[in-house]
Amino acid sequence: MTETAWTVLLLQALHYRANVDFAFNDAIKFAAKLGITDTGSVFNKGSALVMMYETLLTPTNGGGISILKNHISDGTITRETLAKTPLAGYANFGKPEYNAAEIYERSSAASFCIEVYESEEALKNGNYSTQGSGFFVAPDGIALTAYHVFLYNPFMRITTTDGQNYSNVELLWGDPYRDLAVLKIGKTSDDGKTVNAFPYLPLGDSSLISNGERIFTLSSPEGYTDTISEGIISNTNRTANDPGYKEIQFSAAVSHGSSGGALINRYSNSTFYSQISGVPKLVYARRIFDYKILNCYTAKQSV
After folding, report:
1. Would you state the pLDDT for residue 72?
2. Band of pLDDT at residue 298, cut at 50, 70 and 90
């Protein structure tokens, strides 16, 4: 197939008509104006695929949505199909988006501050050795934090955003490699108040985020609970410490004590585990978990 014939085919997919919207012999120039092709490029299999890729992202004639968005809307292309592809950023197309104030209103109650104590006596006296962040992922008290927050210290106390303290904290599972810990928080607070269910954040699929996507963090930097910060995904495939384990780099402002906090996208229905590392005022690389494995784990614990 010639370059002109291929270009006409792609233009027709965008609802443009040959010899009506464009002259057949000027198809390449017309496509170049739409950003589908470059008039100076060499036509081969590689460039043909690039043109098809650009066509998927180009709005259809008459101001319609792109072919890709249309197929996502009608279910022809599933969101899961886009995972781990250059088109992953389109996986959330059609979902409602929220600003920082709305994200805070919908999500902040699920986050908490963690204080870690070296002994039971230190716990009673309130002399904690380190502090971090965490968030609930199930209504029965299943929660996540960073493994390095507590290491091997068994005594912990969490403070929820309503000011309640909970010292009945059980470590269900920990992974020092992924820097992830799964906790179970008892529903009765230290002053005897019992809740029926904890506010929680749904786990997200980190393979569906993309570079440049707007995100928010909820954590307790320096012990200041209930703190929200906003930024973007700087890179979804960053190597920090281990070449075999990729991390997410983002720009939202965080500091000591934010470890274990939640990283949330603008759709509010996706939460990624965050592990604070990096140099202040430069970059922060976030280690993330396999949400599918963790979903299965928390589901078993919640039954």
Report:
1. 81
2. very low
Q: How far apart are CA 284 and CA 270, in angstroms?
A: 19
Q: What are the structural domains of the chain?
A: 3-77 (no CATH), 100-105+201-292 (2.40.10.10), 112-200 (2.40.10.10)
Q: What is the DSSP string of 255-283?
A: -TT-TT-EEEETTSS-EEE----EETTTE
Task: Kindly state the DSSP code that residue 184 receives in the 8-state scheme.
Answer: E
Contacts of range 82-90, beta carbons closer than 8 Å, 24 or more positions apart: 82/208, 83/205, 83/207, 83/208, 84/207, 86/53, 87/56, 88/207, 88/208, 88/209, 88/210, 89/209, 89/210, 89/211, 89/212, 89/213
pLDDT digits (tens, 9 = 90+) for 18-43: 999 999 999 999 998 888 887 777 88
Q: Which helix (H) or strand (E) holds 13?
A: helix 3-13
- Using DSSP's 3-state secondary structure scheme, residue 70 falls into helix
Q: What is the pLDDT of residues 205-240, one digit of tens each?
A: 777 777 888 889 888 888 888 889 898 888 877 766
